[in-house]
Amino acid sequence: MTRSIIKAAEWTLGPETGEGAPQGIYSAVCLTCGAKAQPTDDERLPVEVWALEHTGLNPGHRQFKAVAETFWRVTPAEGNPYREIDAPSAQAAV
Ligand SMILES: [Zn+2]
Questions:
Q1: What is the mean pLDDT of residues 71-83?
Q2: Which residues, listed in sequence order, are joined to residue 66 by a DSSP beta bridge?
């Protein structure tokens, strides 16, 4: 987790943990022909298997660009006025 003070308020950067948010989306592209693996949420293994199968079918295609996307959320740290504004009890009172 990374913390930073922006305009006198402290913010914290961390992974997005909201409902439905994947920890990561994995995919790969063959650098020889441009074929793309079907992207998968949270699981790298199906993309790795795809690359192995792709090379098995095309023995000259051995280089891939592997892509792992992750998602972040910035939240107000202790003492940041937005922390109270974002609190569920404050939203219920609005
Ligand atoms: Zn290929």
A1: 89
A2: 28
CA of 50 to the centre of ligand 1 (A): 11
Predicted TM-score (pTM) of this structure: 0.72
Which CB contacts under 8 angstroms, 24+ apart, belong to 14-21?
14/72, 14/73, 14/75, 15/70, 15/71, 15/72, 15/73, 16/71, 16/72, 16/73, 17/73, 18/73, 21/71
**Ligand 1 centre from 36 Cα, in Å?**
8
Query: Which pLDDT score is estimated for 94?
Result: 46
Q: Is residue 92's pLDDT more than 60?
A: no
pLDDT-based confidence at 89, cuts 50/70/90?
low
Give 3's Cβ-side CA count (13 Å radius).
8
